[in-house]
């Protein structure tokens, strides 16, 4: 371990596909006491496949850690740029560089960019360690857009965000339907704590009942509270294809008649299998959006 502490930034060139896959590569540093914070950005909107990976370490990165980063984004074959940042609030600095995301009527940004929201947009402020927690990832973007579209013709009262992450989908639903009862769960206690902080930062109310968001740790649908709070007329699950398929039975069981299900976290090549798992439980797919990372909207007749 390096003796020189501080904050170290490592930058590598990557493709958009590699950047979008970063949330699924977090285990690469699971053995470290202080894993790096990973952020991806698109420096030039006119070059949509030219992205950058930024990794922030709490100490000087070992050569082996740099090799791990390079293995995560191999296509460009670039050498990592390593720099020590001056002593300052590096989290604020790193998040200040994240560009806002607009999806439907939602405007998702860190506090540094919250003022850029246009009239008529629904603002969400997310201070997350990963850029994709702020809506930058295609799956989160697709879910937000789907939730906004569903709001044109539906009024939901009982909503579940399964695998909430930073809480962005739960908060989007709470702002779209202010009187709804929203439940948000995640397998990761850290994500639950982050979600609670984000709920407070967005002037939304925690707790059980109308106009509130209840947030707790749960493994899949195994927690009895998730069943008791059902049935839900809207469920959003932005996780991965395998757990989406595995949870098809219990998730479908708590979806109300006429309810909608928004699924994401899957690749285009996995969409048929995921859809089939829910079709076997009586749901039908009513909309699909996105390309490589599609968002599926299903409905119980």
Description:
The structure is a single chain. This protein has helices at 16-21, 63-72, 90-96, 138-150, 168-176, 189-201, 224-228, 241-246, 248-253, 271-279, and strands spanning 5-14, 37-41, 51-59, 81-85, 101-103, 106-109, 122-125, 158-162, 181-186, 205-206, 212-217, 232-238, 255-264, 284-289, 295-299. With 301 residues, the protein is of the alpha/beta class. It folds into 2 domains: 5-94, 2-Layer Sandwich (Alpha-Beta Plaits); 132-299, Vaccinia Virus protein VP39 (Rossmann fold, 3-Layer(aba) Sandwich). The strands form 3 sheets. An 8-stranded mixed sheet has the order 10-11-9-8-12-13-15-14, sandwiched between helices. Strands 2-3-1-4 form a 4-stranded antiparallel sheet. Strands 5-6-7 form a 3-stranded mixed sheet.
Give a nutshell description of this structure.
The chain folds into 2 domains: 5-94, 2-Layer Sandwich (Alpha-Beta Plaits); 132-299, Vaccinia Virus protein VP39 (Rossmann fold). With 301 residues, the protein is of the alpha/beta class. The chain has 10 helices and 15 strands.
Jot down its keywords.
10 helices; Ribosomal protein L11 methyltransferase; methyltransferase; Alpha-Beta Plaits; 15 strands; globular; four-stranded antiparallel sheet; Rossmann fold; SAM-dependent_MTases_sf; S-adenosyl-L-methionine; 301 residues; alpha/beta; single chain; 2 domains
